[in-house]
Amino acid sequence: MLNQRRGKTIDVDIKKEMEKSYLAYSMSVIVRRALPDVRDGLKPVHRRILYTLHENGRTPDKPYIKCADTVGTVLGRYHPHGDGAVYDALVRMAQSFSLRYPMIDGHGNFGSIDGDPAAAYRYTEARMSKISMNMLTDIDKDTVDFMSNYDDRLQEPTVLPSRLPNLLINGSTGIAVGMATNIPPHNLSEIIDGTCYLIDNPDAGFEELMKFIKGPDFPTGGVIMGLSGIRSAYATGRGKITLRAKTSIEEAKNGKNIIIVNEIPYMVNKSKLLENIADLVKEKRIDGISDLRDESDRDGMRIVIELKKDSNPQVILNRLYSYTQLQDTVGVIMLALVNGQPKVLSLPEILSNYISFQESVVKRRTEFDLKKARERAHILEGLKIALDNIDEVIAILKRSKSVADGKLSLIERFALTEIQATAIVAMRLAQLTGLEREKIEDELKLLAEKINEYLQILADRNKILTIIKDELTIIKEKFKDERRTSIEMVSGEVDIEDLIPEENCIITITNFGYVKRQPVDAYKSQRRGGRGITSMTTREEDYAKELFICSTHDYVMFLTDRGRAFILKAYEIPFSSRVSKGINIVNILQLNFDEKISTMIKVKEFDSDHYLVMVTKKGLIKKTALSAYKNIRKNGVIAICLDEDDSLSWITLTDGSSDLIIATKNGRAIRINEKKIRAIGRNCRGVKAMKMKNDDSVIGMAKIKEGDLLFTVTEKGKGRKTPISQYTLHNRGGVGNINYKTYKYNDYVAAIAVIDQTNDVILITNRGITIRIDSSEIATSSRTAMGVKVMKVSEDEKIITAAKADKYEAKEELSEN
Q1: Annotation says 354 is catalytic
Q2: pTM above threshold 0.85
């Protein structure tokens, strides 16, 4: 490609030029046209229409204005695109069958549910609706950022303050480049109730929010069939909702049955629906319909389908659901812009982003009010000084040659600011009365109270959240209405999890954070002392550090070295082959840049009868009720507060009265009962579990009971079973027992596991080699014994973890291929 510029020919690579230009175009479509902002739920064209109406004072108490005027003003000031795009957007914002809560109050022909177009903009009129006023509340109080318009003449808001969660109550649709969004509308009362609940319970998940937010609430009503699509959409941001027309079967005066349709699915064209039904009757694909009438009027929709005398109405209705849009599928993709980037969001994430935005709005509004109050108080203080010294002030002004000289003299005499001096010079004679002085003193007192109130709000986040809840509640009381869309349960409904077979699997994670799920029979038993098989391909400096066996329907709780907790279902971890390294955990969890997964644990359910006990590398122990971790959002929660030089090392699930054993790499072990450990909250630090030397660290913790055997394995492959009775019970904070004489054998303890004779033991090395051993082949010895060789490891290799598994039935010798 050649580019002529000032007589010069510039060679340009057409491939790179096309890539660059298309990328710029696609980003413009994504950010500036097609996708809504998660904060106010608006695309730029909708935002500009509302802001223009606000600027022009077209509020609900003012007369309507021609849409041609509004469209032209939007184009001239902020939106340099086609007038058709602006008018189409304005029309949709006024249609009660398109938006659950219309933002525009239209006067004239704005189209119909039959697909009739709106009249030309020279015939229609519009103004803001009452509810849309809440989208711009306090916009003049520096609550949002502004940017230059397309020609730098004017300033326009980057987002509206949006005192109501518009993204969910009105939804949004849009097709960008390579992505699309389709967020269904919801009931305002339900969304506000859910938002207030999330403010009080910031860790609430979608299941808790669904107690308040039942599901989408479409402006045209209809019936949602089942909850699985709703649950999927709210949990993952994607789902398919089956929406049916609201119908009834009645008997006519002539004895024939008729099907009455009072509500049709969202965005379905009524006229085309009737045409489709008529065509099906003509083609004899649906037999038994004798007449089809549209009796809709201003009081509501009424489609009458008259049936032949011997027809079965339920059979015909089911066929209509199958062949026509009386039953439709709404594909939900909750995609919105978050900090300028497109993201698919779950229901809790959308509401959390909205709450964070409202915190910013309230804070900025309060700072603005505080600034204005202080400025006014500053002027009143000057006026008060002037009234206290009025004779001298008058004398100074009388002998001054000019206003400027008078202000300067006042500043020098009374130590005033220029603002105060200007206000004094501008005083009227009426303000010299005693009554005016009282007014000034009363206003100063009131301003002092306001300033104190503003400072308290800014110092306390809880006060800001309370203000948000109070203002949302006021909006709810003003605009609340009943649900239009009902939800019916479907017999035998299949939920997402029901499609996942429940089976045991092995979850493995590497030091660099690569995680994978495999079937439990991927590793068959080998003889003690074998070499093992390759369990994954890793980078040379990476190694697999932890694994356990769980059900695909179990929760997997990930704990980071910085003490944060994340939760996934086991089936959400991608399945990988035995030699695959898996997927990096950062692609699944929202970890910080310098954060690593230190340990993980399986959990069946988050009840209040169990506890999580965790131990840090430096030997601190903490016990917290399992129910405290029930609702963990995608960005995680704090599980334990850590010292700078410490990290979370191990975790186990207990019943509140279990015996625990904690082992260190230098061969010490302490057995304690968890009753000695008081249960504390998630954000607490913990207490000392055992005394350790500076170079020692915790390598494992396990729950034990009498009769168990403690399997100890060293980095060099030595292992043994020891009766748990050889480990005496100690108080928390002691030094414990000797578990392995590392100094004598020049070896370190790699891992521990509690087993019995019916278990297999799975060992894994830092080179990704895994072996599965029948525990009966491992010698039972005292805790001072060296043990036997359980796995061959090379000179530059070491064992890093161990896990128990149910005995594998078909024992066979395996060799690495």
Answers
A1: no
A2: no
